[in-house]
Design goal:
Layout lengths: L2 H20 L5 E2 L20 E4 L2 E4 L7 E7 L6 H14 L3 H4 L2 E7 L7 H11 L4 E3 L3 H11 L3 E4 L9 E5 L2 E4 L5 E5 L5 H17 L1
Parallel strand pairs: 4-5, 5-6
Antiparallel strand pairs: 1-8, 2-3, 4-9, 7-8, 9-10
Length: 208
């Protein structure tokens, strides 16, 4: 077993253990605590946006030709985000290199106060080197989340040593090579299913 595959397996096992212990059935995460459900947009339509990475601005419009997986979370998230990112990274590792090069994962922080671009870069690299961490002003993040129906809110009523948690929806938004939102994956979608969705969209693009 190669080192990368071994690391991927370990990440998935750790994420699965956390999920089994702390998963919230309503798909909203923070610190394993139960809160009122978050309000989600009924019919998110998707759309272009531009946010900041450690290496500069990243625009969805510049990623045409790739399958994009969009996830909203934050680096201080104790359970939900690590689980999803571990599963996504495992799916990426199981793609042939030529297919992996046509996929981009974007991790948008809903905690811009603490998640600067460099912290996001360090965090996402732990899961997979190609995942891009993005942030921006609170207004730009809110506008981007609204496009995709993502919801989040700061939760001060916690005993967490981190000071506060951010409750957030835990869906992965799948964007096809033409920039269209085509699917929403539930929290902790298994890596084989993620991989199948990606490969299906890549195959459709080749046929088209």
């Amino acid at each position: 077993m190669t080192r990368n595959r071994l690391v991927g397996v370990i990440l998935v096992l750790v994420g699965l253990l956390v999920w089994l212990l702390l998963w919230e059935p309503n798909g909203a995460g923070g610190g394993g605590e139960r809160h009122a459900p978050l309000d989600l947009a009924a019919r998110p339509g998707g759309g272009d946006f531009t946010l900041d990475s450690a290496s500069g601005p990243v625009s969805l419009a510049d990623l045409r030709g790739r399958v994009v997986l969009l996830y909203f979370g934050y680096t201080w998230c104790p359970d939900i985000c690590p689980t999803n990112l571990a599963f996504i990274s495992q799916a990426l590792r199981e793609l042939p290199p030529e297919e992996g090069a046509r996929v981009q994962v974007l991790f948008v922080s809903v905690d811009p106060e603490r998640d600067d671009p460099q912290r996001l870069a360090d965090y996402t690299a732990y899961f997979h080197p190609s995942i891009l961490g993005l942030t921006g002003t609170p207004q730009r993040i809110a506008e981007t989340a609204r496009l995709y129906g993502a919801a989040y809110r700061r939760n001060q009523g916690t005993d967490s040593a981190m000071g506060y948690l951010v409750d957030h929806s835990a869906y992965t938004y799948v964007i096809d090579p033409d920039g269209r939102l085509v699917r929403t994956l539930d929290h902790a979608t298994p890596p084989p299913e993620i991989r199948a969705v990606i490969r299906g969209l890549l195959a459709e693009e080749q046929v088209g």
